[in-house]
Write a structure and sequence with these properties.
Two copies of one chain form a homodimer. By secondary structure, chain A is an alpha/beta fold. Chain A is built from 14 helices and twelve strands. Chain A has helices spanning 4-11, 15-22, 30-43, 49-56, 71-75, 77-92, 105-118, 134-141, 165-178, 194-209, 223-235, 248-260, 278-281, 294-309; strands at 61-65, 96-100, 123-126, 146-149, 160-163, 184-189, 216-219, 242-245, 270-274, 288-291, 318-321, 324-326. Chain A binds a DNA duplex (16 and 16 nucleotides) through residues 1, 3-5, 13-17, 19-20, 22-23, 27-29, 32, 47-48, 50-57.
Chain lengths: 338, 338
DNA sequence: CTGTTAGCGCTTTCAC
DNA sequence: GTGAAAGCGCTAACAG
């Protein structure tokens, strides 16, 4: 292993000079800088991460905290794109990423406090925002920088990266109204999520404008309960003309149910959902969906936490990522053949 | 920050004694051990990761390398479950996980060599095995422990965690034969993947036994090309009775195509695929699928790399994870209504 | 069984 | 603009 001393010796300077070159210190002559740099390259010198962390107490690593009680949440394509975005921006700025998941909440809490006192991590990205929780309090109390991907519940001084879900829902609903729908159903994932609340809010806003009542039903990610609900609707001849789902996963299950009940999309009934991905793009049939740009959410989250860790001045705590509606056959007007 | 010296002072022992207690050294009296332990808890002492890494040259961290050129691969639910399995086993044994992805291959190579010389990582898990590649060579050349999730191409002395894909494909094909199918189509993801080759092999084996010819078609993850292929089959009245796809993603696209072409599953045509997940479970319609237990793959990968890093003796380099067929409506015998 | 000591590789005063 | 020296928190000989 080649150390800073080896480089110093080979370049005929002291270790501290080499260190200064590495850290970009400007009080150094061009001649020595060039010499040291070339020796570094020649010897293929790589600074020792642990040694640097020990003395600076900065690990140049960000921790990613996920809440993933169940498979459905974890496998949601949304989260993977966010992660990819985070990786991208962190790597570009020389930061590593440590990820974990826990099935039990206490475990992850324990782990977070470990990471903090280890000096293993300089800051955190939280990939959820359900309600103000222990972990967030823990971080605040240790004065640990963190950003939240999602809706910040209490503290407006916490950087949060989010879409404007109310507006996105308004746009989507408005579009569905514009193509002639009058009978709406909103299928929401239950669990008191802020995103879901916002999307419902936007949906309701537009329906209120239209003087329509907003039909909203809450479901777990459960095939059977959704199926029996629709069975019930069919029997009572109470099917809506269009169904909005609060998330891709719910949409996926819904389509499976509709298939079994032999309700054809878009001729018998139409569908639209939030969170565009390959899942919606290649669904049966392809779904009209709101693209929330999860990769961008991740990138901005990465950039923001790094800004914060570097103690740069933050102007805007509320980073809003744009959304757009992708129109597909699931809401296409088609003349019935019969 | 509370250090090992603080603990030592408070417990009236030397730092090295505390260190010994932490590392579970047995040459220590029960009395001191108990005392030190209680002081540690009282002061909420957390060992400093960087300091320990610096002196032991072991970071207790494993690096996870993914190849993720495109979105489809990355979002494959398979990989997420594998990751969850890895996290689980690593955490259980006190190891952290650093993950990265790169869109460009050179970048990831650079990063790997950084991680190695940083002493930031003690071992690697490779989440791919396409062909023997630069990264694997790099690791071998640095004498870095690593395991591969997937098929090991050259070196049989490398630990690899995999399913028996040949056998799994044989089982699935045998099952499809048993329910009366005689006209098979295998839709394979192109790209020269070892998994795909194995699955095709198993498929072909059984069809050979049945004295049938195996129809195999290779496709990119491309909706249009698959659609026009099936369009062609319809026109020539050459539809198979069942379609096996080499992977969930391909299956997902296939179902979308069949939906558009108004081919109903399972009445008009039947389908089955590899890699069970929520995607297949809640597909339209739910798919018969081979569960390859990705979470187990991940867990075993984690356990294996830790074994390797601890220089424990390895007996079995070929860890085979069992598979099982989940039968669902996509291959259900249904009397045609007409 | 326990303490003393040296040192891991780096940064950072403090001199000059 | 550069060097010498101290020390980050820990472990690992080496004594005893």
């Amino acid at each position: 292993m080649v150390t800073i001393k080896d480089v110093a010796k080979a370049a005929n300077v002291s270790p501290s000079t080499v260190s200064r070159v590495i850290s970009g210190n400007n009080r150094i002559s061009d001649t020595t800088r060039v010499k040291v740099l070339s020796v570094m390259k020649e010897l293929d010198y790589q600074p020792n991460h642990a040694a640097r962390t020990l003395v600076t107490k900065q690990s140049n690593t960000v921790g990613i905290i996920q809440k993933s009680e169940n498979k459905e949440t974890r496998q949601n394509p949304f989260i993977i794109d966010v992660l990819a975005g985070i990786y991208k921006s962190c790597k570009a700025q020389g930061y590593a990423t440590i990820s974990t998941t826990s099935e039990q909440y206490e475990n992850i809490e324990l782990e977070v406090s470990h990471m903090i006192s280890y000096h293993a991590v300089d800051g955190f990205i939280l990939l959820y925002s359900k309600e103000n929780d222990m972990i967030e309090q823990l971080l605040a109390q240790h004065n640990m920088p963190y950003v939240v991907v999602g809706n910040p519940l209490l503290d407006q001084q916490v950087i949060h990266i989010d879409n404007n879900n109310v507006e996105a829902a308004e746009q989507l609903t408005r579009y569905l109204v514009s193509i002639g729908h009058t009978n709406f159903l909103f299928l929401a994932e239950c669990g008191n999520y802020e995103v879901v609340k916002d999307r419902i809010k936007g949906f309701s806003n537009i329906l209120k404008q239209q003087k329509q009542t907003a039909l909203i039903e809450y479901f777990d990610m459960n095939y059977q309960s959704i199926k029996s609900y629709f069975h019930h609707l069919i029997i009572h001849n109470a099917l809506p003309s269009v169904i909005i789902t609060s998330d891709t996963m719910l949409n996926h299950i819904l389509l499976s149910v509709l298939y079994e009940l032999q309700l054809h999309v878009p001729t018998d009934i139409q569908t639209a959902t939030f969170n565009d991905s390959y899942l919606t793009e290649f669904a049966a049939p392809p779904q009209t969906a709101v693209d929330i740009h999860p990769d961008l959410l991740g990138e901005v989250a990465g950039d923001s936490i790094i800004q914060l860790m570097r103690r740069e001045h933050i102007i805007n705590f509320n980073k809003v990522i744009p959304t757009e509606i992708i129109k597909r056959v699931s809401t296409q007007l088609i003349k019935r053949e019969q």
